[in-house]
Inverse folding.
């Protein structure tokens, strides 16, 4: 016969293991391959692309001839950082009249992992301690010549 302690241990272990399940997150544009392939250069224009694919994730920074549809899928296990599983960018290029010139699709191969440096950026000026920051403004408020200040201020 199985003891109550063994049953409790199995239930507790099962509950702890469910807390370690991975979390999959999809964000951005959810692309349908059929819809993307339906966009034909020389046939479609901005209005038909918007009707087919919807509003772009973002438009080119310097002109509106590039539309981008961006999606990404990450996976996170327990308390670890999310890991990029898939990334997709669909770039639609238009000519000056608004007709589609090209539709390009790129994937994870263009994604870059950036490891930021924890070094400090040097700045000009002086180092101020905590107490300099805390008490350094005493006497500065209401000084003559400053807006809202003493007799010379306005």
């Amino acid at each position: 016969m199985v003891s109550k302690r063994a049953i409790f241990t199995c239930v507790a272990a099962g509950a702890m293991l469910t807390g370690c399940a991975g979390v999959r997150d999809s964000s951005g544009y959810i692309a349908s391959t059929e819809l993307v392939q339906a966009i034909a250069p020389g046939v479609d224009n901005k209005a038909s692309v918007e009707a087919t694919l919807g509003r772009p994730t973002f438009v080119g920074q310097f002109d509106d001839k590039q539309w981008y549809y961006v999606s990404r899928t990450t996976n996170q296990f327990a308390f670890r950082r999310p890991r990029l599983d898939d990334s997709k960018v669909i770039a639609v290029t238009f000519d000056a009249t608004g007709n589609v010139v090209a539709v390009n699709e790129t994937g994870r191969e263009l994604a870059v992992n950036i490891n930021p440096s924890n070094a400090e950026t040097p700045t000009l000026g002086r180092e101020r301690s905590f107490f300099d920051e805390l008490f350094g403004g005493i006497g500065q408020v209401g000084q003559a010549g400053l807006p809202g200040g003493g007799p010379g201020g306005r």
